[in-house]
Write a structure and sequence with these properties.
The chain is α+β, with helices and mostly antiparallel strands. The protein has three domains: 7-53, Uridine Diphospho-n-acetylenolpyruvylglucosamine Reductase, domain 2; 63-172, Uridine Diphospho-n-acetylenolpyruvylglucosamine Reductase, domain 3 (2-Layer Sandwich); 178-296, Enolase-like, domain 1 (2-Layer Sandwich), CATH 3.30.390. The chain is 32% helix and 27% strand. It contains ten helices and 15 strands. The protein has helices spanning 14-24, 37-42, 78-83, 91-99, 103-108, 111-117, 124-129, 226-232, 239-252, 263-285, and strands at 7-10, 28-31, 50-53, 63-66, 69-73, 133-139, 142-147, 152-154, 157-158, 165-172, 178-186, 195-204, 207-216, 223-224, 295-296. The protein has a five-stranded antiparallel beta sheet with strand order 4-5-10-6-7. A five-stranded mixed beta sheet has the order 14-13-12-11-15, sandwiched between helices. Strands 1-3-2 form a three-stranded parallel beta sheet, covered by helices on one side. α2 links the parallel β2 (28-31) and β3 (50-53). Bound molecules: flavin-adenine dinucleotide (FAD).
Amino acid sequence: MFPHSFHYHRASSLAEAAAMLAELGEEAKLLAGGQSLVPLMKLRLARPAHLVDLNFVSDAAYIRAENGGLRLGAMARHADIEESEVAAQIPILHDCAAGIADVQIRNRGTIGGSVAEADPSGDWGAVLMTLPASVRCLGPRGERTVPIEEFFLDAYTSALAPDELVSEIRVKTPAPGSGGAYLAFKRSAPVYASASAAVQLALEGDTCREARIVLGAVGLTPLRAAAAEGELRGKVLEPQAIERAAEAARSVADPQPDMRGSAEYKKALVAALVKRAIGAAAKRARGERVEVSHIYA
Ligand SMILES: Cc1cc2nc3c(=O)[nH]c(=O)nc-3n(C[C@H](O)[C@H](O)[C@H](O)COP(=O)(O)OP(=O)(O)OC[C@H]3O[C@@H](n4cnc5c(N)ncnc54)[C@H](O)[C@@H]3O)c2cc1C
């Protein structure tokens, strides 16, 4: 089906795009990679009267290392992040970018669009929540920084005001002795995860000094599994502790039954994914090079 007709506006800077949003009001939508918005428009589930195109904004797709962290411009494509040596310094970012859908979608879809969409099945939310990360939001009142834990409010609802846009994602590089991994279970490549688990650990010898575990696609927002983290923090990373963490994560998951599986099935997936992600994160924290790939049915 063809989308409903709309007026097209080309922004030459993010500030201009924000000004256009403020002027055109709630009938306007930003166009980034178009990988979520355009299908919705073609199904006529979204009918914006105005599209403000960000694809001609220069210098909005950067990936820079700066002050002990990374700055990712909102228009950085998933494929840019997948191929970036700078982003590879934080392996969980590479796990995420390389596993999103298929290459066509990764070539167009952006980190800014994904975060702004706040799709409960999206991959970036869970991954960013395991890191000290924040979202830079730009609007008519200027720029502000929202910690990632405060950004996702509900399914498809974020802390962005209607006249604000995501300008940048900031991530702090984890301290030495840290490692993270992101794993999802997908029915095939070009579909969203049935369930996913992002884990970031800091080790001191065999003891887990710090743990962050966030679950994806099993709640209305990415879910922090604090009880699971508590099963690891200050403990030796032995199989029983990992098993307890996986069980704790299973009880935090709150999935909806749908075409991807029953709620019980997704909870079982979560437990298995958390266990595997802890294993990979721990190896990385010990300095081992570990390739992580999603599991496809
Ligand atoms: C078949 C298919 C499979 C997919 N599988 C996955 C998957 O497995 N995992 C996954 O994470 N994603 C998946 N996606 C989604 C993909 O990652 C998209 O790239 C992403 O959700 C949206 O990014 P985008 O740049 O395409 O945004 P767009 O589609 O252009 O925009 C999405 C929404 O965000 C708004 N927006 C865009 N940029 C900004 C900004 N800078 N500030 C504020 N608002 C903004 C738009 O107005 C729109 O409302 C899939 C998409 C398709 C079509």
